[in-house]
Amino acid sequence: RHDEEAVIDQGFFSNVVNIHYEKEELEGHRTLYVGVRMPLVRQSHRHHRAHSQKHRKREREKDAVPAEQGYHYTPSQRVQFILGTEEDEQHVPHDLFTELDEICVKEGEDAEWKETARWLKFEEDVEDGGERWSKPYVATLSLHSLFELRSCIINGTVLLDVRATSVEDIADLILAQQEPSPEFDERTRAKVREVLLKKHHHQNERKRNNLLPIVRSFADVSKKQDLHLLEKPAQTLTPHPSPTTAEAKNGVTPETSAMDLSKAELHFMKKIPSGAEASNVLVGELDFLHQPLVAFVRLTPAVLLSGMTEVPIPTRFLFVLLGPGGKAHQYHEIGRSMATTMTDEVFHDVAYKAKDRADLVAGIDEFLDQVTVLPPGEWDPSIRIEPPKNVPSQEKRKMPGALDESSSHSKPEKHSGPELERTGRLFGGLVLDVKRKAPWFWSDFRDGLSLQCLASFLFLYCACMSPVITFGGLLGEATHGHISAMESLLGASMTGVVYSLFAGQPLTILGSTGPVLVFEKILYKFCKEYTLSYLSLRTCIGLWTAFFCVVLVATDASCLVCYITRFTEEAFASLICIIFIYEALEKLSHLRETFPVHMHSKLDLLTIYYCKCEPPAHPSNETLQIWRSNGVNVSGITWGNLTVTECRSLHGEFHGPACGHSGPYAPNVLFWCCILFFSTFVLSSLLKKFKTSRYFPTRVRSTVSDFAVFLTIVIMVLIDLGIGIPSPKLHVPHVFKPTRDDRGWLINPIGPNPWWTVLAALIPALLCTILIFMDQQITAVIVNRKEHRLKKGCGYHLDLFMVAVMLGVCSVMGLPWFVAATVLSITHVNSLKVESDCSAPGEQPKFLGIREQRVTGLMIFVLMGCSVFFTSVLKFIPMPVLYGVFLYMGVSSLRGIQFFDRLKLFWMPAKHQPDFIYLRHVPLRKVHLFTLIQLLCLVLLWAIKASRAAIIFPMMVLALVFVRKVMDFCFSKRELSFLDDLMPESKKKKLDDAKNEAKEEELKLGKTSRVDTPKPSSDRADPSEINISDEMSKTTVW
């Protein structure tokens, strides 16, 4: 029994730290590899099997190490041994909340335990005024107090796996382990017991008592004090025994000590993870004590000790330190050291799994082995260190084979997953995609029932509507109305709904692309020159393109995506983001033509400024035909009295000094549009960052951040209505019919064209296929990045198949073609990021992944199709506001692109450069060379897209893959593993590498067939190898 081990240690230190194991005790252990050269991978866990005596004897004879020599391990190795033991139900580590209470004695008042600090992840102290908690900060401990804590564990009482139901039982067990002495007689025992049973006064009780019912902050009002929160952490409730005389004297009875729900810090409990347990640290000075009383207690199971802890969660650990007067500060620092070590990830696990005192000491020694010491003359201990944004992983301390962040790149991860492996069967990849996504289909709808999804839907609906209508308008101008805004709305809605329902990656948003518009312009011009039917030829091209895409799906051609590395992804994504930013600014600039600035105005002539409507001096044939058809008598019209609308309907002309390019001069419009544009961008950015601000409760900040763009649009629309300046508004078609009367919703692929045009359409269809494939798959790769932590898998083959099917449908109906839109998809993913709700004070919320669902995309495109019926509302949205949203999407999508981080390094001195992982392992000149190559490729892509050769843009995107392949000759494999993803190697090379690795493994196993024992510390050749336990045993200070 572990609780029988708790006796006073008389200082036999060598027996505590110099632990000797027989070899057979270690051979079946699952994570301890001492003196063995093992491959740097995590080993599979094997269950411990009992060895027979015959087997053990054979193993002893096989090994040449004398039995009496034993095994002498460092604290780190022993901790790894402890953490590698099989877990049972009673010793599974839980999250810990640690509370530090100190005994407080006031004149004329009864003594009580007062809460002075608490730890969930970082330390929080009760400020000197006693009115509030401090900000969370990184605990800084004195090395002296850590050594004193170590001494306390060695020489104090250690009770492990104690079964107790109340504080009274624990106090009795602790006192029973104290050796009787003249300084610690029965009277002293009774007094100590009485102190241990004193009432605990928590900070939240004082806070609530001082608050007036009326004077409460908004943050307090918003706290939902729901009783169901008490059921969140795991609890072990036990019946209370009948009160004793001492308990009744101190007012500690089952009735009075029960948890008062009105005083519980229920808001703080939201920060505590489910299933968490408590660790109570009780320290203080007592005048009647002549020697310290130290006890470390681990309860099994954890017990809810009413009134002991600030929050109603079961207690697992107690550390008690009571000593003579005059050393309050020293005891306080030892208590802080104990509480801080309990928050350490490694010691926390050791405390749960320790089997004796020696294990706890090894845990403290391992902690001392890892601590950083600050020189006293260069640091002020009173300064509170802000919690870091990222905390390094502690896995390398727990397991000998674990890799740290820097070494993890030594063996790069496989770029392609199971989704991109060739099946060798016709449509094999498509079938596997369907099987992979089918089990998640219904959960894709359940997971969409979230407020965050509503915010994402409202934001992206506005963001998608404008480019679709704008693209339709540009297409209408290029094709003389054959395909315009109405066709664009219907095509986007149909394609988006089908894709959202059945695609492999519904997070991808479909949209129109610039190269498609260029292709449509060239095709229309060609048809006009050769008197061909544009819509019929376009239908043939679209059907061939759809067929080729289906062929690519059937042959698992999407596996070629594995050649698209970060180099190609970032060049393409950067280009699309820059295009968004450029076009947003360009559209704002174009408003000067419609709403010019009246420069160099002469204020003295303001009284004679005018803009009159007059009949056209040289009316066109079209104008004359309109006059005749409407029976307009030009000579009988008083042109000077017509309104602007009437003048335009009669095709009149505006003349006068107050006229602009397209009508009367409207003052202030351009400047007001600029204000709306930049205000939208700035306000969206500020509201998005509001989540990390210090104002308002977390729930309010999160909601505002989620609805940032939608709230911005609503605010700017209201401001625009209030100001009343006639800014240009969003125009949505209000009648559901084709733009031209001479076309219907179904197009004949041949029509009036010759039969050979069906075969001639093969050539442009091949070019379109490359365009569709590259646009779709590069965007899909960006969405499916491993950084997004997607859990439901992806479906490259299924995505391309759905795009191909809808491309064929849109071609037959004479609608625009839609493919994955990079910036909209990135924005969609970013708007659905999920972070941990339960984060410790001071700890940054952890990124958990993306809310994978189909609801947002489905609702966006369903509502887009219904927009024809919402024109009365949509007509109030100013176009500059939507341009500002484009600018925000372009800028926000640039964040996280490594290319721009590397681009900024050109202007940074080395000492000011961020601590990027690739800067640690790749020479700066190589980083700059990699960035320059990527920049040149980006400039080339931009130049081609902006020129008449834009039709070959997809070919140039494809060329990036070959450029990246050539870079293998300029950079080493290790450098590319840090700067980019490694390209997949040929099958022959893979087989060759596999053979080499197999040979290396055989050599390693041959060399390490025996377990080497580390040499004793006295014979150590390398002075850098320190066993801190041995060194501590040599000093007499502790």
UniProtKB/TrEMBL annotation:
Q: Where is the composition biased (Basic residues)?
A: 43-59
Q: Where is this region: Disordered?
A: 43-70, 233-255, 379-421, 987-1038
Taking every annotated instance into account, which residue ranges of this chain make up the domain Band 3 cytoplasmic?
Answer: 94-381
Keywords from the UniProt entry: Cell membrane, Disulfide bond, Glycoprotein, Ion transport, Membrane, Sodium, Sodium transport, Transmembrane, Transmembrane helix, Transport
Report the gene name.
Slc4a8
Record-annotated Bicarbonate transporter-like transmembrane domain positions:
425-984
What is the membrane topology here? Multi-pass membrane protein
Please provide the Gene Ontology terms (biological process) for this protein.
regulation of intracellular pH
GO MF annotations in UniProt: monoatomic anion transmembrane transporter activity; sodium:bicarbonate symporter activity; solute:inorganic anion antiporter activity
Q: Identify the GO cellular component terms for this protein.
A: apical plasma membrane; basolateral plasma membrane
* Origin: domain of life: Eukaryota
Query: InterPro entries from the xrefs?
Result: Band3_cytoplasmic_dom, HCO3_transpt-like_TM_dom, HCO3_transpt_euk, Na/HCO3_transpt, PTrfase/Anion_transptr
| Localization terms from the record | Apical cell membrane; Basolateral cell membrane; Membrane
Query: What single Pfam family name could you report for this chain, choosing any that match?
Result: Band_3_cyto
Stored Gene3D superfamilies:
Helical hairpin bin (1.10.287.570), Mannitol-specific EII, Chain A (3.40.930.10)
Q: Hey, which family's this protein in?
A: Belongs to the anion exchanger (TC 2.A.31) family.
Bias kind Polar residues: ranges: 235-247
Which residue ranges does UniProt annotate as crossing the membrane? 454-476, 488-512, 532-555, 567-585, 669-687, 707-725, 755-774, 795-819, 855-874, 881-900, 951-967
**Could you tell me where the Basic and acidic residues compositional bias lies?**
406-421, 987-1023
Q: What is its main location?
A: membrane
What protein name applies here? Anion exchange protein
Q: Which residues form the signal peptide?
A: none
